[in-house]
């Protein structure tokens, strides 16, 4: 009987700790990565703002090279959508372009599978002396109990690497395209 009482106390303590962590743990998460690309801003931003060109630099394509992708609306403009369905690693989701300027696109992202979540993302291509500074980021909110689980996951390391990989591929294709326009 003492063992059961001891186990019950331990279980209650663990639940209490979990709930306290849920109150204390951050709910907002943001990730942003940038890279300098030796190519004109117009070339870089063209790849960033058009969903049909995302396939060339998407880091998730390597996890499912045959995932189904559909772009609807006027690609590169507000209201355009990018929908994907892939294997377990890439899941299913949709991105909707919400605001487009000459240097920035803001979008809403809905993950449908493997779990539902929403986030806001952005891509920015700013001209600089050495070419273009390309930035890719997103922010989201994790409610309890997911905010507690996020304390034990290194999202910056996991997602950050994917963002870095994507930006590196964007750099490669933009610089190659830039070289073709200089040396046809």
CATH class wording:
Alpha Beta
- CATH homologous superfamily (4th level) name: START domain
In spatial order, strands of the major sheet run 1-7-6-5-4-3-2
The 3D shape can be described as elongated
Strand content: 25-35%
Overall structural class, as computed from helix and strand content, comes to: alpha+beta
Number of helices: 5
Q: Could you tell me how far the N terminus lies from the C terminus, measured between alpha carbons in angstroms?
A: 84 Å
What does this structure look like?
The chain has helices at residues 2-24, 41-49, 51-54, 146-150, 155-182; strands at residues 28-37, 68-72, 81-85, 92-100, 104-113, 117-128, 131-141. With 184 residues, the protein is of the alpha+beta class. It has a single domain (23-182), classed as 2-Layer Sandwich (Alpha-D-Glucose-1,6-Bisphosphate, Chain A, domain 4), CATH 3.30.530.20. The radius of gyration is 21 Å and the shape is elongated.
